[in-house]
Amino acid sequence: MKRVMTRLRERRLRVDLRARPELLLAPAVFVVTMLTWEFAVPAFGIDDYVLPRPSQIFDALRTQLADPLFWGHLKVTVLESGYGFLLGVAAALVLGTAISQVRLIERTFMPYVVAFQTVPKVALAPLFVVWFGFGMTSKVVMAAVISFFPVLVNVIEGLRSADADRIQMLTVFGAGRFQVFRMVRLPSALPFIFAGLDIGIVFSILGAVVGEFIGAKEGLGYLLLQTNYNFDIAGMFAVLVVLSVLGLIAHFIIRFARKRLVFWAEENRVIGA
């Protein structure tokens, strides 16, 4: 019985690898890249303080993970990006719904929204520090501002993508504007909204780190600056690895929620990337 079960598992694994070769290719590319990096650095005579080897980065990462202060910095960045993401999403949902449903609001406010988006967000970070101080508030605002626009554009396009025939049919049967919104427009917009959330949650981490670069006493951005000042290049790479993992976790959380809540929809092209 055990042999039969083992053979069945092996067959399933072979089928999965044939249908999804990326399950094998993705880790293979990672292993080959790390090995090449590990042996190419000393082979080409590159100094460790210029480009540390993966083994040195792993040692620095292990040291940081064993330090309680590191977890404090990580917690601050997660909170800043999380609060900023929620704030940006709330503002984008409200404004995007209003713009998509009321033509006058679109013509009045959309030019200002687009003009504000063209301003480099890094240039706004010093202003936020002056206005909101060196604490968490300025980083939350920065994260909210950066994550706002991708969600806004996807909300607008999603609500406008509703099938006109379905809307006309509901209208003929006496459905009100709110009923049309709830039964047609909102379900049609959900795939677009989740595409915007996928970008926005990663951008919120970027916004929090940028805010910490300008002025902070804690957070992963602050820790990244400290390792730079100390010329700890391996430590810098270790912090970058943690930020990458944090972004991947956030990305997969949104993807998991999308598959659970919008399971009927096909993948949509991301708008506002």
TrEMBL record:
Pfam families on file: BPD_transp_1 (PF00528)
Residues passing through the membrane, by range: 21-44, 81-100, 112-134, 140-159, 192-214, 234-254
Similarity remark: Belongs to the binding-protein-dependent transport system permease family.
InterPro entries xref list: MetI-like (IPR000515), MetI-like_sf (IPR035906)
Source domain of life: Bacteria
Domain ABC transmembrane type-1 as annotated: residue spans: 70-254
Keywords, ordered alphabetically: Cell membrane, Membrane, Transmembrane, Transmembrane helix, Transport
Localization per record: Cell membrane
Listed PROSITE patterns: ABC_TM1
Membrane topology category: Multi-pass membrane protein
Name of the protein described by the UniProt record: ABC transporter permease
